[in-house]
Write a structure and sequence with these properties.
The complex is a heterodimer.
Chain A (H helix, E strand, L loop, with lengths): L1 H4 L11 H7 L22 E2 L6 E2 L2 H12 L3 H7 L4 H16 L27 H16 L6 H34 L19 H12 L3 H8 L2 H13 L1 H4 L3 E5 L5 H8 L4 E6 L3 H11 L6 E5 L12 E6 L11 H12 E8 L2 E9 L2 H7 L23 E3 L11 E7 L10 E8 L9 E10 L13 H6 L3 E4 L11 E5 L15 E10 L7 E8 L5 E8 L1
Parallel strand pairs in A: 3-4, 3-6, 4-5, 6-7
Antiparallel strand pairs in A: 1-2, 8-10, 8-12, 9-14, 11-15, 12-13, 12-14, 15-16, 16-17
Helix pairs in contact in A: 5-6, 6-7, 10-12
Chain B lengths: L2 H10 L3 H4 L5 H8 L3 H10 L1 H12 L2 H4 L3 E5 L5 H8 L4 E6 L3 H11 L6 E5 L12 E6 L12 H11 E8 L2 E9 L2 H7 L12 H8 L3 E3 L11 E7 L10 E8 L4 E14 L6 E4 L11 E12 L4 E10 L7 E9 L8 E9 L1
Helix pairs in contact in B: 5-7
The chains are: A alpha+beta, B alpha/beta.
GO molecular function, one term (chain A): protein-arginine omega-N asymmetric methyltransferase activity
Catalytic activity (chain A): L-arginyl-[protein] + 2 S-adenosyl-L-methionine = N(omega),N(omega)-dimethyl-L-arginyl-[protein] + 2 S-adenosyl-L-homocysteine + 2 H(+); L-arginyl-[protein] + S-adenosyl-L-methionine = N(omega)-methyl-L-arginyl-[protein] + S-adenosyl-L-homocysteine + H(+)
EC number (chain A): 2.1.1.319
Chain lengths: 546, 350
């Protein structure tokens, strides 16, 4: 949400489109909507045969090929009597010729591309190959004379079955050749995987969704435009080129590859970039376009499952931070990568994180978010308030809503922390810096530090600004810093069962704050806070972070 | 709209959904499914929307009195309650989503349980307690009017349940396009990918150019007169009509550059005693629908009085009916060869 940070300059135009689409079009836009929620058909962008242009679909691409390059795939297919596998070979043949610089490959005879080597895709996940059957079907439909419809339908069904079989065979062939080539599994190419996603339990679904969500532009745009975040990584890498020179670097969750490219520019010998979302295909193109293809290797998959081309790495760089730091649990994967691949004495970038909590008092926000439901166009909608306090909210908190200096409740030294330590219950203590009518809740945020060696430490209770003054790279996602896309996390206190009491400046509040994964392996997080100011103002509550 | 309004408007949806910017819809649904409040809060707080429905119902008590009303996609039940308060004999609210559970509580708390029956399920599958209804009310509109809209469900309800002389609220939707000067934002959204921290991100730019933006456009950005492209009369429109190919012609009101076309829609409740109308255009008060921006690959240099013409084609994606495939062709036919421009851009709303 980088651009919306400059909210005074760019008032409205900068919310990414898909944020808006979240709110959808009607009251009913909820998890089910009006139609069946079908497994989303992950359509790969279609890359042109003669250029790197991305097309919305195969038809548009073929049209362009025909018009600009005089290459009419459908006609060639027909003239040469190509079957499905022949057509696959044709596409790969053309791609390999174009790649070699020949923009007018010889397609006069079938023999030119008869070699089975052309069954191997030139482009990984080449959407053209996967949509060829559509074109063939379309052709059949178009040439269907209406009068013979019934007979043709049967023929078409047979044809379709035949094509599907061929297609499955092709997928198997591809899989086998890739297996041979990479000596690793590539689950994406399993036959039928695209056809129908099996019904999974919700947890697995959430996991899949998590990865697909990162394949869209907008989220990458908002992250790249979060200058606090991206500048910090850039500054650390470019200001410490000596650390990166000739080193092997692993980028966990590389996204568009920006951190990998920083490292490559800083002199890394090799950068391995891993991401399990479709964005890896764009990252690969971007890396190539920037002439860094020989330094950076992009690998698609979960870090826990992929085989890296090296045994060890010297540096792990990752932007793994989620809401309230640990939401999305990507950090578990970073810890896995560290324990599995980081050489002794190797460097984690960033190296330290701290989590902070502060009391929150913002009657205006509570009024607009909670009291709103008391009277909606003359109707009582209290039912909408029922679970309103069960969810932590992600919002930009005005500094005026923070009623005390924040307290650190967890320090995370990235070189040593373990996954077990990410589930915790910690004490905290804050002292109100102003009178409040009501303690409305708690605000949570984090600071991130980039120290130059595995042995570096950061003082307890340090804030990002202190380390910046000492010349280190660090940033805060707190309300007193420049806004970041992480915003702050708000946990509102439910006063439906207890009366709220005013509290005076100087009042000490002690408590315990806990993080717990919703279920084993879940990316969802539960937060719990217990607090006590005095005999009347105390409580305990649990929030989920969705 | 004022900046304060804008900040409020964006703040409302800045919940869990926000981190999911750019997310797949199934996934957005998944993640926001718990966040009932955010979505419904935004809907209800869209005052232009909710007030228009309220007025169209409350000002027409004589039309609603003793009638059987069907609310398609009732959500929190607000429209059903308006209709009940306006004297309807009975209101049936139908919604797929679990929000209906809340809606039932809300209806009960407001003492309208005997007037309103809420059914959870697909319109095509639920069993209505009345064979025919006199009035259908629905807030079905999506971005670009048709994106993820429920219009096809409303049409199904109309064909199945609406009595011969029945009324639909609203009953008319009109789409418009206009051209805008938008250099700064185009640079921010599209040009951004040319140089990202010193790197060439052109693969992302190609994708960005095919994604329409739902955004608030300021009136002063308009370079041309708006052009009405299509009107849907809900009494007669069919699902097939929702795929359309229509010409447009835009006349420049001033000399300027054109970076994008925008589209919006107006809604009419013409079954009212006194017709009620609202617009989601850049000249009107903010709504959560905002406008939809289509960046052109070319920048057109137009002079006052000159025209840009072309064809806008919209159809549901073959594979995923929820997605819209939109093609916009344009021709700026001027003598000056340095300013002449012609092209065609493809967009997908997904």
């Amino acid at each position: 949400m980088a651009s919306s940070m400059q909210s005074t300059d760019l008032p409205v135009r900068d919310l990414p489109a898909d944020v808006r689409s979240v709110s959808d079009d009607s009251d009913s836009s909820n998890e089910e909507g009006w139609e069946d929620v079908e497994p989303e058909d992950e359509s790969q962008p279609v890359v042109g045969l003669f250029s790197n242009t991305i097309f919305p679909d195969l038809r548009a691409m073929l049209k362009e090929c025909k018009e600009k390059n005089g290459f009419d795939l459908v006609k060639i297919q027909k003239d040469l009597g190509l079957d499905f596998l022949d057509t696959i070979k044709l596409v790969n043949y053309v791609r390999s010729e174009v790649k070699a610089g020949n923009l007018s490959p010889d397609v006069s005879t079938k023999e030119k591309f008869a070699d089975d080597a052309y069954l191997k895709p030139v482009l990984e996940d080449d959407a053209v190959l996967y949509s060829l059957d559509d074109i063939t079907e379309e052709q059949n439909e178009q040439t269907l004379p209406g009068t013979e419809a019934e007979r043709k339908v049967l023929e078409l069904q047979e044809e379709l079955e035949r094509l599907q079989t061929q297609f499955s065979e092709y997928r198997l062939a591809v899989q086998k050749s890739l297996d041979d080539q990479l000596n690793q599994e590539d689950k994406k190419l399993e036959p039928g995987e695209n056809a129908k996603r099996p019904v999974k339990d919700r947890l697995e679904d959430a996991d899949t969704d998590y990865f697909t969500s990162y394949s869209y532009n907008t989220i990458h745009e908002s992250m790249l435009k979060d200058a606090i975040r991206t500048d910090a990584y850039r500054d650390f890498v470019y200001e410490n080129k000596h650390l990166f020179k000739d080193k092997v670097v692993l980028d966990v969750g590389c996204g568009t590859g920006i951190l990998s490219m920083f490292c490559a520019k800083a002199g890394a010998k090799k950068v391995i970039s891993v991401d399990n979302s479709d964005i890896i295909d764009r990252a690969r193109e971007i890396v190539y376009d920037n002439g860094l293809g020989d330094v950076i290797t992009c690998i698609r998959g979960k870090i826990e499952e992929v085989t890296l081309p090296v045994e060890q790495v010297d540096i792990i760089i990752s932007e793994w931070m989620g809401y309230a730091l640990l939401f999305e649990a990507m950090f578990d994967s970073v810890i896995y990568a560290r324990d599995r691949y980081l050489a002794p004495g190797g460097l984690m970038v960033p190296s330290h994180a701290t989590l902070r909590v502060a009391p929150y008092a913002d009657p205006d926000f509570v009024a607009s978010h909670v009291s709103f439901w008391n009277n909606v166009y003359g109707f009582k909608m209290d039912a909408m308030k029922m679970n309103i306090h069960d969810e932590a909210l992600v919002r930009h908190v005005p500094t005026t809503s923070i009623a005390a200096d924040s307290a650190v409740f967890l320090s995370l030294p990235l070189h040593t922390i373990t996954v077990d330590e990410l589930t915790f219950l910690k004490d905290f203590k804050v002292t109100l810096s102003e009178d409040v009518d009501t303690l409305d809740g708690w605000a949570i945020w984090f600071d991130i530090f980039f120290m130059p060696s595995a042995d570096s430490t950061v003082p307890e209770n340090v804030v990002a600004a202190d380390m910046q003054k000492k010349g280190y790279v660090a940033f805060t996602t707190g309300p007193f810093g420049t806004e970041t896309h992480w915003q702050q996390t708000i946990c509102l206190i439910d006063y439906s069962k207890q009366e709220s009491q005013p509290l005076k400046k100087g009042q000490v509040i002690t408590g315990k704050i806990g993080y717990q994964k919703k279920e084993q392996g879940s990316r969802l997080l539960d937060l719990s806070i217990e607090w006590q100011a005095n005999e009347t103002t105390k409580g305990a509550q649990r929030w989920s972070l969705q | 709209m004022s900046e304060a309004d804008a900040a409020n408007a964006s703040g409302v949806i800045a919940s869990s959904a926000e981190r999911m910017v750019g997310a797949e819809h199934a996934e957005v649904r998944y993640f926001t499914s718990y966040d009932h409040h955010g979505i419904h809060e935004e809907m209800l707080k869209d005052d232009v929307r909710t007030r228009s429905y309220r007025d169209s119902i409350y000002q027409n008590r004589h039309i609603f009195k003793d009638k059987v009303v069907l609310d398609v996609g009732c959500g929190t039940g607000i429209l059903s309650m308006f209709a009940a308060r306006a004297g309807a004999k009975h209101v049936i609210g139908v919604d797929m989503s679990s929000i209906i559970v809340k809606a039932r509580e809300i209806v009960a708390v407001n003492g309208l349980s005997d007037k309103i029956t809420l059914l959870q399920g697909k319109m095509e599958e639920v069993h209505l307690p009345f064979p025919k209804v006199d009035i259908i009310i629905s807030e079905w509109m999506g971005y670009f009017l048709l994106y993820e809209s429920m219009l096809d469900t409303v049409l199904y309800a109309r064909d199945t349940y609406l009595a011969a002389d029945g009324k639909i609220f609203p009953d008319k939707a009109t789409m418009y396009v206009a051209a805008i000067e938008d250099g700064e934002y185009k640079d921010d959204k599209i040009g951004f990918w040319d140089n990202v921290y010193g790197f060439n991100y052109s693969p992302m730019k190609e994708i960005a150019l095919t994604e329409p933006l739902v955004d608030t456009v300021e009136m002063k950005a308009l370079v041309t007169e708006p052009c009405e492209i299509i009107t849907f009369d809900l009494n007669t429109v069919t699902t097939a009509d929702l795929a359309f190919k229509v010409p447009y012609k835009l006349t420049a009101q001033r000399s300027d550059f054109i970076h994008a076309l925008i589209a919006w829609f107006d809604i009419d409740f013409s079954a009212c005693h006194k017709p009620i109308h609202f617009s989601t255009g850049p000249h009107a008060k903010y709504t959560h629908w905002k406008q939809t921006v289509f960046y052109l690959r070319d920048v057109l240099t137009v002079e006052e009085g000159e025209t840009v013409s072309g064809v806008l084609e919209n159809r549901p994606n073959d594979k995923n009916k929820r997605d819209l495939d939109i093609n916009i062709s344009y021709k700026f036919d001027v003598e000056d060869p340095t300013r002449f421009a012609e092209g065609s851009c493809f967009y997908r709303m997904c």
